[in-house]
Amino acid sequence: MNKLSRFNITSLTLGFAFLYLPILLLILFSFNASKLVTVWGGFSTKWYVSLFQNEAFMDAAWVTIRVAAISATAATILGCFGAIVMVRGGKFYGRTLFSGMIYAPLVMPEVITGLSLLLLFVALNFDRGITTIILAHITFGMCYAAVVISSRLSTMDQSLEEAAMDLGCTPFKAFIKITAPVIAPAMVSAWLLAFTLSLDDLVIASFTSGPGATTLPMKIYSSVRLGVTPEINALSTLLIATITLGVITASWANKRAEANRIKDEQLAFAND
Amino acid sequence: MSPSYNNNSIFAPWNDPKEKPLIEFKNVTKNFGSFTAIDNQSINIYEREFFSILGPSGCGKTTMMRMLGGFEIPTEGDILLDGQSITNIPPHKRPVNMMFQSYALFPHMNVEKNIAFGLKQEGMPKDQINDRVEEMINLVQLQQFAKRKPSQLSGGQRQRVALARSLAKKPKLLLLDEPLGALDKKLREETQFELMNIQESLGMTFVIVTHDQEEAMTVSSRIAVMDHGKIIQVESPADIYEKPNSRYIADFLGDVNIFEGKVASANDDAIQLEWAEGQEKLQMEASQPAKIGDSNWLAVRPEKISISKEKPIDADNILKGKIWDIGYTGNISVYHVQLPNGMTIKAQEVNRRRLANRELTWEDDVWISWRKTAGTHLVK
Ligand SMILES: Nc1ncnc2c1ncn2[C@@H]1O[C@H](COP(=O)(O)OP(=O)(O)OP(=O)(O)O)[C@@H](O)[C@H]1O
Ligand SMILES: [Mg+2]
Predict the structure, then answer these.
(1) Which positions in chain A have a beta carbon within 8 angstroms of at least one beta carbon in chain B?
(2) How many residue pairs bridge chain A and chain B with CB atoms within 8 Å of each other?
(3) From atom 29 of ligand 1, which residue's Cα is the shortest distance away?
(4) CB-ligand 1 contact for B37 (6 Å cutoff)
């Protein structure tokens, strides 16, 4: 490979600095002993302690985790059904419309999704709260899940299911015993994706939440309007740590699976 | 199971009008969209048959199997098993097992679990399952690989697992889609004999798709040759080889020389074929009535043609030519003899002597000859 020119090095450095310096600063200042966000007053972890004692934040965190876990699970199951119909359904009337409608929410502006759901809940006279947030998150999480699962399903050899039925399984049993284990990794990624998206969402949650149901992003957003506190920095650092850990674990698992596959193939070759 | 030269004493239920077929295809058509994969075909397959389907790629062999397995529903027509229509019965309710062309091994289960899968669904007791799995693993010689996942096996080993899995339930009817294609010659021959043994000892009926003519000839009770969604001929191996019903079949199975000509005289079963100017007419026995002036064909297998330096005296058809090429394959030699009109004829001789002692060589003038009963009269 060519050596990087001085110009390239400079632009790379500036680019990365622009991306990561704010995050580094945020992490650094979460360990700041001073209450002033811009002045360094020595190392301390006291903001983490006070964060865990802040009930409003802890409540919001708990709400967020519940919303994310429930909606990700439901979205994965529903997305799985959608994927099966899209990939295995064969030709049926309205198929194009159906898959189009599954993909559409992916590009729909969040404000529109949030607003329309709000109108729906109001029209139905539905009490807004954690349930409505969960429902809203299921609707968009499901689309992502369907996309992730259907891409795996379409590369799976359909004769596997046929073989299972040939050996005496009903179609449902064939799905449980053969298809589900084969597409399980895709279902895990779908779940993680839906979980992260739910964790991350501010707009739709703001539209659909009601009194007593505040998610972490909503809480952070509303606190920041009153000024950035070191507690917010600490909270953000924890979120960054969680996400980084997740990404690293996922890529490590992927790498290991790949390495195993290559090892398997070599083994097969050696014994041919 | 040997080819049925004599239909009275040897297994040949298809010649017995009292026999009920195990499988009946009744005017079955299968369309994929506007494409016709199977075109209005009817066949009967009998119990204990080893029925082979041969044909070029894409002719519809797998589609026939998939309709028997229940994975494709005929667009028209009916399929009967034991006299009952199975056209609308789902795969898991059919007493039929299939070995898939793509093997379709379950990737998350090891060899043992793959083989045991069907037995478990059936609710067989554990110890019996273990015995049966062991029996199957021994059969396909995969003892060292019992705990491996499919991804840890080579192509030939996977094929053997798929075979063992489909055999494990010992179904009445077993469908094998190219079961031995990925095996080397020695293992393939061993497995062929094992299959024939199993089939005979358990009284099963096998329907097998293969690309390998020799395999079909060795194992089958009957062979069906297909082309473009149609079954062209169904016969025992000997009959389909010796009495092909068309040039397509004659050419498809083994080597053949085909002479095209006009019927010059036809009385009773003797036909004379006018085939080239200045050449003597060819003699053959009629396979069916022919009219003078019709365009007909004579097919002669290379091994039925004798080749000699002196003109033979007692043959019905004698032609003069020059050796153009010799194909040597060890046990036999194939002489390519060019006739005065430019046509090349293949004649095959068994190498009884060592190469250096043989008298025929390139550019020699030779006579080729055969009896009128050796060729086959074809009308299409
Ligand atoms: N599901 C399908 N949709 C559309 N066309 C199909 C489908 N299945 C098979 N065909 C077509 O039907 C024809 C017969 O296919 P089939 O698989 O039976 O061939 P085959 O004789 O088994 O070939 P091969 O020897 O290559 O396995 C092919 O032209 C194929 O393209
Ligand atoms: Mg095929």
Answers:
(1) 157, 159-160, 162-171, 173, 178, 181-182, 261, 264-265, 267-269, 271-272
(2) 78
(3) B58
(4) yes
| CATH for B255-378, options being 2.60.40.2950, 2.40.50.140, 2.30.30.30, 3.40.50.10490 | 2.40.50.140
Cβ atoms of A128 and A212 within 8 Å: the answer is no
**Mean pLDDT for chain B overall:** 84
* ipTM exceeding 0.85, yes/no: no
Mutant choice from A167, A177, A258 vs B, greatest count of B C-beta within 10 A: A167
Distance, CA of B338 to CA of B368 (rounded, Å)? 10
Which residues are CB-neighbours of B180 under 8 A, at least 6 positions away? B159, B163, B188, B191, B192, B210, B212, B215
- Measured CA to CA in angstroms, residue A28 lies from A37, A43, A217, A243 at distances of 10, 9, 21, 18
On the 0-12 / 13-18 / 19+ scale of CB atoms within 10 A, B78 is middle
Please name the residues in contact with A264: beta carbons below 8 A apart, sequence gap of 6 or more.
B149, B151, B152
CB A186: neighbour CB atoms within 10 A?
22
CATH 3.40.50.150 fits B3-95+171-248, yes or no: no
Nearest CA to ligand 1 atom 4: B32
Q: Does domain A53-271 have CATH number 3.40.50.970?
A: no
Ligand nearest to the CA of B72: 1
Distance B44 CA to ligand 1 centre (A): 22
Residue range B143-167, pLDDT digits in tens: 889 888 888 888 888 888 998 999 8
Mutate-to-test residue for ligand 1 from B28, B31, B35, highest number of ligand atoms within 8 A of CB? B35
Q: Where are the domains of chain B?
A: 3-95+171-248, 255-378
Q: What is the pLDDT of residues A119-133, one digit of tens each?
A: 999 999 888 888 999
Domain boundaries in chain A?
53-271
